[in-house]
Amino acid sequence: MDFNGVIINDERIQMKLYQDIFKDEGFEMTEEQYLACTGMDDTSFIKHQFNRAEKELSEDKIKELIEKKSELWRKAIDKEMPVCEGVENFIRKCSQRFAMGIASRANRADIEYVLNKIGVRDCFTKIIGSEDVTENKPSPQAYLACFKYLDERRTAAGHHPLVHKECVVIEDAPQGIQGGKNAGMATLGVTNTFEAEVLRQAGADAVTKTLVDWMPESIVRVFSKTA
Question: DSSP 3-state assignment of 202?
């Protein structure tokens, strides 16, 4: 599973925070410019936006802005945790049948913070965050790293090895869908951030408005056809 836009519906919050931060730095960022960069980690995102605005940027400045955004983000979600509809129940039920991991370019500390807040941290065997990979989606690196760990855990327990095409990636952005496809996995797009057609054009095998009605049996029924 991806994190932002799949587990926590915070893409608009992130965008507004960055718009305010960049405005303080002397330039504007549109919604289109933000959405074009989904799948990037904070460092890559900030570098991209400063480069676009032809602004000077230092490593110390990057660190300062990331810390500022993370602090503001936590204050914003603490007021009202914007968990995606039905996702807690979905995660709980699926974790009883499937090995589950998160492959995200968000900071691992922020991911852990939310999962612990909503009580589902124990459902995930592995969390891949921005610290664990060097490439942004649509690179498959994050999903392949998560797959490798889950496969090693599975085989160590005496089970048959995992196969890429038997894995399902859940994403809200076209870059993430492409990353999942590039990893050789099936993909389920959730329309929390982008329209269904955008996700289908990116290669999503199935698209849904919400995970409310998706249960383990639904995953098996739909994606056994794509394996």
Answer: coil
Scan for tokens 């955008």, then name that residue. Answer: 198
**Distance (Å, whole) CA 44 – CA 66:** 11
Strands (E), the chain: 101-103, 126-128, 168-171, 186-190, 206-208
Q: Give buried/exposed letters for 26-52 (b at 16+ CB in 10 A, else e).
A: eeebeeebbbebbbbbbbbbbeebbee
Q: For residue 168, what are the β-bridge partners?
A: 186
Residue 31 phi/psi, 5-degree rounding, is -60, -40
Q: Are 173 and 203 within 8 A, CB to CB? A: no
Enter the pTM of the model.
Answer: 0.90
Cβ-count burial of 129 within 10 angstroms (0-12 exposed, 13-18 middle, 19+ buried)? buried
Whether 142 and 104 have beta carbons less than 8 Å apart is answered as: yes
Block means of pLDDT (10 residues each) for the chain, 227 residues, are 96 95 98 93 96 97 96 93 95 96 95 96 97 96 97 92 95 97 98 97 97 95 80
Residue with tokens 């999903």: 143
Q: How far apart are CA 204 and CA 190, in angstroms?
A: 10
